[in-house]
Amino acid sequence: MSTPVAPLYPVMYEGLVRAALLEDLGRAGDVTADACIPVDTQARALFQARHAGVIAGLAPALSAFSLLDPSLSVRTLVADGAAVAPGQAVAVVEGAARPILSGERTALNLLGRLCGIASKTAELVRAIEGTGAHIVCTRKTTPGLRALEKYAVRVGGGSNHRFGLDDAVLIKDNHLVAAGGLRAAVERARAHVGHMVKIEVEVDTLAQLEELLTLPVDAVLLDNMTPATLRQAVDMVAGRLITEASGGITPETVRAVAETGVTLISLGWLTHSVTNFDIGLDFESL
Fold it and tell me: Where in the numbering of this chain does the Quinolinate phosphoribosyl transferase N-terminal domain appear (predicted)?
């Protein structure tokens, strides 16, 4: 990737990794490993990519092993953001076999999820290269994994939309109905929030956009518009607002959307239903 992404602080993910391990270990621990692996058995295990893609989330995934047994040796062979080939090793874990086996599924679940997001983001970023548009994610994230999934988007070369309900105003169709219209909603929002809080409004038609352009907002979400309508909308905005296209955008259509001149392209499926990246953990004989 062109710009390295700042790593996450462990405090941002240790709680959720711990919860995932506890979910798996239950009340009795790993009865399979405890039953058939002698306590002093040592092992060396390699994480290997099974197809090409972009790696993300090594630190959170591998923390599963250090939480189970701090004496395990955990070593990364690539960095987050690295493009890997099929069969390439990305990390190695050495030490007591039992905790390696007990942490395997939690580590693979996290790593596969985050690498899948980073890989698809990188694919989309390549698809719109040269247009000036940016790929962004949404709040449609897996509960509890938002910080990690949004990190994976950044690793893949994308950008983040708001992280939660508290860092920006996004007025959508249901807000407009409840507030009594576009002008009422915007005027109340502007009077309520501080000067550091951005306001974005979702519109479905060019008529709504025309009204919005008379109001004090920072960005407009152009929802479920065709490329032809998006181009008209961008012309109407004429650089006065950040323009965001959203709704029904696929890898096949993303280039056409980017070429309309929009600033951002947001994709909920990038985090809520992206394909898991296939990574295996294989033991080697000692």
Answer: 30-115
